[in-house]
Each structure stands twice: as C-alpha cells, then as structure tokens.
Amino acid sequence: MFNLASFISNQTDQDFARGYVFYVAFEDNPYINTGEKGRYLVRSSSLPASQMGTTEANWQGNVYKLGTTNEYSDFTVDFNVDIEDNIRRDFLKWNDVVHEVRDNMHGSPLQYMWTVTLEHLSHTTGEPIMTYKLHMAFPTNIGELTLDYSSKEIAQFSVTFAYQWHTYE
After folding, report:
1. pLDDT over 70 for what percent of the chain?
2. Residues 10-43, buried b or exposed e (16+ Cβ, 10 A)?
3. From 1.10.8.420, 1.10.150.450, 3.40.50.740, 2.30.110.20, which CATH number describes the 18-51+63-168 domain?
4. pLDDT digits over 101-141, tens only?
5. Is the pLDDT of residue 42 over 70?
6. Among the four 11, 23, 100, 159, which has the fewest Cβ within 10 Å?
7. 3-state SS, residue 151
8. Which class for 47: exposed (0-12), middle (13-18), buried (19 or more C-beta within 10 A)?
9. 35 falls in which pLDDT band (50, 70, 90)?
C-alpha cells in the first residue's frame, strides 16, 4: 500500500548527482595545448548518447525485434574563449589535420582521431562518479564566435565531435 510519509522521507533523505560538476579533457592530444587550464574553459557539455539499433525477424507469422549494433550520436562541448583565443585556435588547427583546405589534403585517421574523456564528478568529493572515454573522436563542427560591441558576455563557441564508440567506468 502506498504511504505518502514514507515516499516523502525517501525523497528528502537522499542526495542526487549534480549536472554542473564535470570535466572534459583532451589527454595526449597534440593539437589541444591548453593543458589543465583547458578543463576550466569548458562551459557545458552532455554525456554521450547511444542507441541500440534494431532489426526485425519473422518467425511463424510473428515479428521479433532483435538488437543489432550500438549507434553513437555526435556530442557538443561549449567553450569559453580564453584571453589569447588559444582554445579556438587549437581546435581550428586540429580541424586542419582532418582536411587542409589550402592544399585539399586529408589527414590519416590515425593523425586526427583522439580520445576525449568526460568525467561526471561528485559535488561532495570532487571524485569521478562516472567516466566516459570517447574513442577515435574528431571535431566535425567548430561553431561561430559572436562578436558584439553591445555585449559584455564572455565570448564562447561550440565544437561538435564525431566518435566511433565510448567506454565507461
């Protein structure tokens, strides 16, 4: 039987994870040179989504859905621009490795695909409660940077990444 007092006490006695405590890191990436400071330029992100593909099999007049393979969505990270605009410059250089428009050369995937780490942190201890490693990631869209004389907001831009798969701990 439903007990309202029990329901309320169960909801108020527990704490929940916070969405504003996280890191995004580009470890060992030769194109992103902001180091530890780069983590603090991240304004927002999302943890990656994955969806199980399905197919249908017919057997004796019945349709059965079967799982096929995971499909991984692109993900976007929003950055605050540092005073020297180094973070944006680094992403533009990384993008040039994928396709250099001046000579129409394409880089090897081994040159431009790197691991991106997303850590969701505990707001009480600062330790990771969930870590995602996005393997073989690369930027597919480096967003616009709005410049406006009438604004006093911190300049920001977005980078969208494609990746092959992710693991989690």
Report:
1. 85
2. eeeeeeeeeeeebbbbbeebebbebeeebeebbe
3. 2.30.110.20
4. 999 999 999 999 999 998 888 888 888 888 999 999 999 99
5. yes
6. 11
7. coil
8. middle
9. low
